[in-house]
């Protein structure tokens, strides 16, 4: 697994997941349940991960959509 990006913005993660799903690229959100530990204030970033073989294409999809950092 490789990390595409980290963010505290849940809308950015949701948009990226939708774009990748449209392209048939499975993506996974890591650390989404950490809010329980932080008290649901959104300070811990969530990671968007893809398989190693999909990283290049996933990064290109997000770059084209303007979601790269």
List how many beta strands DSSP finds: 3
Please state the CA-atom Rg, rounded to the nearest Å: 12 Å
Please count the helical segments.
3
Helix percentage? 25-40%
Instruction: Give the averaged pLDDT, no decimals.
Output: 89
Strand content: 15-25%
Overall body shape: elongated
Verbal overview:
It is built from three helices and three strands, in the order βαβαβα. It has helices at residues 10-22, 35-38, 55-64; strands at 2-7, 27-30, 46-50. The chain is an alpha+beta fold. Strands 1-3-2 form a three-stranded antiparallel β-sheet, covered by helices on one side. It starts with a strand and ends in a 5-residue tail after the last helix. The mean pLDDT is 89. The longest helix is centred in the first third of the chain and has 13 residues, at 10-22.
What descriptive keywords fit this protein?
elongated; 3 helices; alpha+beta; 22% strand
Write the layout of secondary structure elements.
Blueprint: E1 2-7, H1 10-22, E2 27-30, H2 35-38, E3 46-50, H3 55-64
Concise description?
Helix content is 39%, strand content 22%. The protein is built from three helices and three strands.
